[in-house]
Structures are given as structure tokens and as C-alpha cells.
Amino acid sequence: MTGPVVVGLDGSPASVTAAWWAAREARDRHLPVLLLHSWTTQPLDVPIAQEAFSRKRYGDQVLQRTEAELLHRYADLTVARELVSVPASQALLEHSERAGMLVLGSRAHGSVSSFLLGSISLHVLGLTQCPSITVRADEPVVEAGWGHPGAADRDEVVVGVQQVGPDADPLLEFAFTTAELHGAPVRVVKALPPSALVSPHALFTGQADSRYEVEERTRLAATLTPWREKFPEVLVEAHVAVGPAAQVLLSASGRGRLVVVGRRRHPAHYTWKLGPVAHAALHHLPCPIALVPHD
């Protein structure tokens, strides 16, 4: 991974928590951090005057204060600041073309409102060219760190794989790289559609037809083989279950320290869409969520 870790920053607790998470990740990956603030896209609840000068001054203060906090935590971190006048969504999407990852804050569990508000936030997440991570304001493991005993009950990198084969490679690369970096295991989740309950025995027991399940497990194992070989120190657990993909992923993510889901790239900036699995993860999972674009 190359390019800076770009953080959308507005001074709210959510965005500051995202900056802390991004700083630790950037330090561990030996990447610089870029703090980005759009003075024309500020939270509606920020008690500042509406004059342009006041808004610019507020933005500059937010950037300077956060930079100082990050350097106090990680003295060897490289941090840059950028105050822009273009809409935040435009600035973030432009930076995503050369960033290593993009990090946004989310105000609370069950909400995707953040540095960007509502549909704007989803618009950015649906169009970024690099992996994008959302971090909640109440994220408890930002302070704890990956190896801290207080975070022992959330120690996995969970990755949802909807299609085995080449389409899964960007997700698996991000998940395995992150897991190796932090000494964490990877849980690879594959949902079998309810239509897998095809035989009378399957309908009675609630388990997928054994032949179909064996075939899917074999395909998943084949997909994971090169990643196991490339990352021999990473423990891998394949999790296969019947049900809607979003439901299966949520159920399997109880120990997730980071959950990785995929998002298909879109050819035009005016076309964006997040699938049901990404929506469910963003709205319901308490841990940071990584959306990784793929073809």
C-alpha cells in the first residue's frame, strides 16, 4: 500500500476519533497522514459565525489542534494538513485516487452521519478509489490498540466474501495484510443462499445440501490457499453458513476488530451504490468497517 492515509476532519468527536485510528494505522504501515478539512462543508451544529473568514479560521484551528494531538501520541508520524474550499466530498474523492486509504468518522452506533452528512457520506463511500474506513465516535479500541488486553474480545479481522475467485482478491489482500501487520487472525465469511436448502433433509435440519456445501467450502479453500501460503503466520478460519449475506456477516463478526466488505467500482462519479452487506455493516457493526473497491 502506498499513498497517505487521508482523514476527513471537521473537529467533531467522530472525526477526531477517526484521526486517532488513522494515525495508529499509518504509523504501523509507515505511511504519512493527511488531515483534510473543507471550510465550506462544516457540521451544522458547530457554533461558529457564518462569515468566510471565521469558517476558515475555525477549519485551520481544527487542523492544527488535531495535528498537535497526533504528533503528541506518535512523535515519528508524518502529518500534513490541507484546508480546502471545494466541497468535502469532491476533495475526498480526488484524494482517494492516490491515497492508501480514506478514513471517516461516524457519530454513533447505528448511524453513518459523519464529517459528511447522510447521503453525502454514502456517496463518498460508494465512489472512493481506495479502501475507505469508517470509525465510530464511541469506538473503544482506538485507545486500546490491537494488542491491548482490554481489546481481547475483539481480535479478528473479518472479511465477507460474496464471490470466490479473483473478485475476492482485493478484499483478501487488505484483510491478510492488516492481520499480519497486527498479529491478528482472519475470519473469512461466505454465505450460502437460502436456496441451498434444497433437499428434504436440508429443509428439515436447516442445513444446506451437503454436496452443495462441500463444493462451496472446496472453492473457498482453493481461493484461500495462495493467501495462506503468502501469509503463513496468519491464522485463518473459514466461516460458511446458510442465510442472507448481510445476516451471516453480522452474526460472524462478534470478535471483529475490523470488518472488511467489498464494493464494486463504478465507471462514473455520478453513479454510486452500496450493496445490502455494506449497508448492514455500516449501520449495525460497532467496529471499524473497511470498504474495499473491486472490479
TrEMBL record:
SUPFAM superfamilies assigned: Adenine nucleotide alpha hydrolases-like (SSF52402)
Secretion signal, residue range per the UniProt entry: none
Occurrences of domain UspA (ranges): 1-136, 157-293
InterPro entries in alphabetical order: Rossmann-like_a/b/a_fold, Universal_stress_UspA, UspA
Protein family: Belongs to the universal stress protein A family.
PANTHER family: STRESS RESPONSE PROTEIN NHAX, UNIVERSAL STRESS PROTEIN UP12
Protein name per Swiss-Prot or TrEMBL: Universal stress protein
Species, as recorded: Streptomyces regalis
